[in-house]
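User: For a benchmark we're assembling, each entry needs the component sequences followed by a predicted structure for the full assembly. Here are entry 17's components. Please fill in the structure.
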Amino acid sequence: MMEKSVEIIKVTDASYEYAEISGDEQQENKDKKEKQPAENDVAAKAVNGLQNINLSVKEGEFVAIVGHNGSGKSTLAKLLNGLLVPDEGKVEVFGFDTSNSKDVFEVRKRVGMIFQNPDNQMIASIVEDDVAFGPENIGVPQPEIVERVNWALSAVKMQDFAKKTPTKMSGGQKQRVAIAGVLALKPKVIVFDESTAMLDPQGRREVLETAKRLNREENITIILITHFMDEVLDADRVIALDGGKIVMEGTPKEVFADEKKIRSIGLELPIVCDLAHSLFKHGFDLDVNVFDVEKLGDEICQSLSKI
Amino acid sequence: MSIVVENLNYVYNPKTAFEKHALIDVNLTVDEGEFLAIIGHTGSGKSTFVQHLNGLIKLQSGKIVVDGIDLTQKKVDYKLLRATVGMVFQYPEYQLFADTVYNDVAFGPKNLKLSSQEIDERVREALNLVGLNFDYVSQKSPFELSGGEKRRVAIAGVIAMRPKILVLDEPTAGLDPSGKNEILNLVTKLRETTVHTVVMINHDMDEVARYATKVAVFDKGSVKFVTTPQKLYLKRDELVQMGLDIPTLAKLKLYLSSKGIEVGEDCLTSEKMTRELEKLAKGGENV
Amino acid sequence: MFRDVAFGQYYPAESFIHKMDARIKIVLSVLYLAGIFFIQSFFGFGIILVLLGIMIAASKVPFGMVLRSIKPILFLLVFTMILNVFFVSGGTVIVEWWIIKITSEGVLFAVRMALRLLFLVMGASLLTLTTTPVDLTHAIEKLLKPLNVIHFPVHELALIMSIALRFIPSLMEETDRIIRAQTARGADFESGNIIKRAKAFVPILIPLLIGAFKRADELATAMDARCYRGAKGRTKMKILKTGWRDWVGSFVIVLFFGVVITLNILQPQLVELVPWMFV
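Assistant: Structure for entry 17:
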C-alpha cells in the first residue's frame, strides 16, 4: 500500500537510563549483587532502560512490541510521544524532534497513548467531559470540541455512555473511553502501553478489536505493547525487547518461528503455535507457523493422512 | 469434604433502591485435595462467593461448612476460620505495608498471637515456599522488589498463616508469561506441600485447563454448572453464550472431531495433545 | 463498607435543576444556606421544607439519595443537639436534677439548630447531586475569576477539586479492599484500647497512601500525554449559559426567603393573630 511507505516515527540510537538510584546506592547494589547466588532473581532485577534502539514506523502500520516485564517496552512507548526524552540518540515524530521542548505538544497531538490502568487515566467524572479534556487542552474551539467528542465516542462505540460516570463501567468500557479521549485529539498514531493487561478476556477483545478497527478504518498507526502473545498475531510487524535492546523483529510468523529465542527472552509461543512445534518435534510433518485452531487442525489432518 | 455450600443467597443493600442479588441458590462442594477454578464475568458473583468462605462477607441465608467449621452457627471462631482459609486478593502486592519483607509476612502469624519463635519459623517457611531467598530478602523493604516478587511476598504473607484452603482471586493478573508461570507453579507446589485445597478465580481458560481439577462457571449470581476442564468442550455453546470460551486445545479437539479425528479428552496441554495425536498416528500405522 | 456514601456524588438525570447554570446554582445555594440562618419560627422551617420538597422533586433525584447524605453527619447532629439541650437555658424549666437543667428554650434551640443543619446538608448535597463535578469546578473557576488579579491560582484550584471528586469513589473502593485483605490476614480493628486500634490502621493507611501516590503519578502522566499545559490557551466544551430555568429558579428561592424574612419582621403582629405558628 502506498501510505505504508511514509515514515512517521524514527528512533535513532536512542538510549535511556532511569536515574532514580544515586551513585552510592548503585555501588551498594552492585556489591550486593556480587554476593548473591546467581539463581537469586532479586539481584538480577532488570533496569527497564533502553540501549541503542533503532526503530522506524510507517504510516498505517500495526506494530506490536513484546517483552517480559522490565524489558524496557514501556520506556520505549514513553519515548515515542515525548513523555521521556532519550539520554542519547534521537526520536523524531513527523519530523519533530521530541527533545525539543517547544514541539512536544505537536508530538503529543499526533501520538496518543493508552495506559495500563483504566482507572488512573480518567480526569473527569463524566465520560464526555473526560473525552473533551484533550481538545480543551490544545484550545480547540467549543463547537468543534463537541463534534470531536461525539465522533470519538461513536468511533469506540461508547456514544450511549456520554453522560455516564465511569465508576460502574467494566474495564473494557473504561479503556474504550480512554481511547476516545485520545481520539478526540485526532492523533495519527496511538500507542497502547499494556492497555489490556488488567482486563478480562471480553475487555481485551473489546480493546483489541477497537485498535484493529481504528487501524483499518481511520488509517491510524497502532503500536501495541503487550505480553499476551495471541494479541500480536495480526500485527504487520512484531518487535521483541529484552534487556532494553531490540532482539527480534519481523512478521509474527518470522518471530514465532524461532521458538528457542522466544522462550529465552521470557516469552511464550501462542498455544496453537506451541502445539505445532511440539508435534513437529515428535515427527509430525506440518507447518509450524500456524496461529489459528482451524489451520492447525487442517495441518494435523493432512499430516495424519500421510501416515 | 473441604468446602460444602448449600443454597447460598446473598443480597447487597437489601430492602433499598440499590438492592442487588449477588448470589442465587449457590450449591457447591469441594473435596480435599481439589483445585477448583471459578470462571465468570465481572459481576457474576465470583468474588462475593469466595469472600464468604473465610467470613469476610457474613452469611445471610444458606449453609456453608468449611473444613468442619459451620458458618451457620451463632458463634463462629473467625480467627480459626481465617487461619484455615487463606485469601489472596487481586493484585495482592497493593496490600503490602510493612518496613521489611519479614514484618509483612509476619503480620498474619502475629495476629494469630503465635510465639516469636513460631512466627520466625513460619516466615522462613513461607518465603522459602514462594521461592524467595530469606537471607537476602527478609530485611529489604517490600517496595524495593519487582512486581512479580512483591506478589510472591504478598502470597507468602497468606501462606504464613498455614491455611488448609487457599483462595486466590486472579493471581496471575497483570504478569508477563514467565511471571504467570511462576505463580501457577507456586500454587501447584503449595498444593503438594502445605495447602490441601485450592480455589482460584481465573479468566484464562488455557490456564484453567492446565491446572484445575474442577471448574465452576458462575453467571449472574448462580452456578451454571460444575465440570472438569477436560469436559468443558461439551459446554461450548453455553459458555459462548455467556461471552466465555473453552480452552484453545478443546476447540482443536472439536475441530478435529468434525473432520473425523477423535482425540481423547485429556488433551488440554501441548504435551498431552501431542501424546494423544501420537497414539492416533501409531494406531494408524498398525492398521 | 464505604459504598453508601452519597455526598459528593453526581446523580445523572435530565431535570429542571440539572439543566440550570452551575454558577446560578452555586450562588443560589449560598443564598439558601445563608437564608436558613434567618429562620426563627417553625412555620419558617415548614416553608423551607416545602421549598426543599419542590427542589428535590424538580431534580428527579430519588428522595432516598438525598436523605443518605445525612448519614455522615448524623453523629455531629446528635452531638450538637445534646450539647444545646444541656447548655442553653431560658424559658420554663422542664427537668432539673443535680447540675443538669433542661429548659424549654434549650430544647427549642437544639431542635432549630438540628433542623438548620439538616436543611443545610440536604440543600448542599442537592447541588452536588445535580451538578457534574466538571460543571461545578468550571463554575467555581468562573465565579472566582476576579481573584486572578491577585494571582490566586483559580484554574489549579478548580482542577484539584474536580480530580478529588473524581477519585473519591476509587479511593473508597480501594480502602474497602485493603481492609478486607488485612482482615483476611487476621487483622483486628475492633478490639483493644485507642492506641492499639489506631495502630491497627497502619496496615490500611500505608498501602492506601502508596496506592494514592501511584495513582497520582499515573494520572499526571496521562494528563501530560493528553497535552495538558495549564490554563493558558485552554478552551471549554461546556459553555455555562443562563436560561429561563435559572430565572425561574432564582425567583422561587428569592420568593421563599422573602416570605421567611417578612415573617421574621412581622413576627410580633403575627404571634397575636396565629399563636400556634410560632412556638
